[in-house]
Amino acid sequence: MSTQPQPEQTQPDQPEPEQPEPAQPEPAQQAAPRVVVVGGGPGGYEAALVAAQLGAQVTVVEKAGLGGSAVLTDVVPSKTLIATAEVMSLVDDSVELGLRFPGGTGSATETAGSVSVDLGRVNERVRRLARAQSEDVYVRLEKEGVRLLDGFGRLVGQQQVHVDLADGGVEELGADVVLLATGARPRTLPGAEPDGERILSWTQLYDLTELPERLIVVGSGVTGAEFASAYDALGADVVLVSSRDRVLPGEDADAAEVIEDVFRRRGMTVMSRSRAASVTRTEAGVTVRLDDGREVLGSHCLVAVGSIPNTAGIGLEEGGVRTTESGHIETDRVSRTSARGVYAAGDVTGVLPLASVAAMQGRIAMWHALGDAVRPLDLRTVSANIFTAPEIATVGWTQAQIESGEAQGVIVKLPLAGNPRAKMQGIHDGFVKLFCRTGSGTVIGGVVVAPRASELIFPVALAVEHRLTVDDVAHAFTVYPSLSGSIAEAARRLHRKA
Ligand SMILES: Cc1cc2nc3c(=O)[nH]c(=O)nc-3n(C[C@H](O)[C@H](O)[C@H](O)COP(=O)(O)OP(=O)(O)OC[C@H]3O[C@@H](n4cnc5c(N)ncnc54)[C@H](O)[C@@H]3O)c2cc1C
Description:
binds flavin-adenine dinucleotide
């Protein structure tokens, strides 16, 4: 929305006024509000763009590279790597569709040995893409007139940010509004500290030049599951060590079951209820010791056991900014912290660790701080995706919340195996699940487990956002044959159940 006054339109059929209006005195020029953003990830740079659009004088302080971890080490690199893994999964599954590969055995399930991945080339591409994306963010911010400072920022009061510049200098920035968007970093396990060669955090994977022979992934949350899935598809022997009963704890239980089943069928070793106590180097690789005394041997280990917020040394005490028990910055639904004029966005708030949520929190902060129209953050409408093969996409209320009575809803689940397009494409795993409000039939959530579920969840997200009923969804045409046909079919099945 523009803050510039719009010129008045002259009505074509009205006569021009004979006398010009007396000149009005110029309104006193108000100084543009000064906004300082600490952290140039999606929480920070999206906020900076909104603030610039609203006429503020904006400075972004970033210590490692614009785009943040999202662009340089997390989202962009992992999804670029997964793009190659996805092609490998397709190749694997294509034998059933009649493809044969030179050197393959010609059996109905065998491509092994005939198609392989050059991880050095893959990672070169990953790093190039991440750098280019970071450069794009830089260029865009500069174009919008945002001042960019390469350095480490910290609050020295509610209206002042001290910057230790990368070139050795310092700068003090006065601010009317401060946004803290410093993100998070990988959590390490004592006794399993990454060495960057064999024991790795997810930020160190992209220096590998050869596919690990046997990769042990410690942690079966979203990050662990995505990398286990990707490296398995790329051809590595993968062992997934999970401290819980099943992979992806906290996600839709049916979806997690499908993924675990696919992992095992593809030959991955999934060790449930197995807690890693330490990871050490051996001459040839690594040993993961479990707390029950068992040992797992591998060539490499990826430790993916969550992340911790970057709050150290950023002046939270000096600025009067409160943190939660988990150490995240406490915010409300318009991204305000406990300190007047200080906002926070993204992973440092622990609200929901997604780039899309970080970006929205940052935008909301600026809309609120600079007096634009603003709607508080609503997590109920966030779509999320787990980029395993197949993918898991979700939006809205969950089945667990419906079953616990937290939400009043009706559930329908359709396996994709019955979908004509899925049959043609050789898709055997996955489903569509739709939830609607009891009585009204309003769509309140859904889960899609399918290849490219991230693209298929959008109609469900639209329905949740705009409170469409299952009948609204059921009456829209879908292409025949299509996977999205199953979403409409699920809506039709809910017609009388609601
Ligand atoms: C492996 C992995 C894959 C992921 N994939 C997805 C995905 O597919 N989709 C999705 O939506 N989310 C994904 N996420 C989550 C996503 O990466 C984060 O939610 C997102 O990066 C959060 O953005 P942010 O702006 O809060 O922080 P970040 O992106 O971490 O950016 C914070 C920035 O602040 C800088 N900084 C920190 N302290 C200071 C300081 N004092 N001064 C100056 N600069 C500072 C850091 O250098 C960093 O650049 C993934 C996460 C991981 C770990």
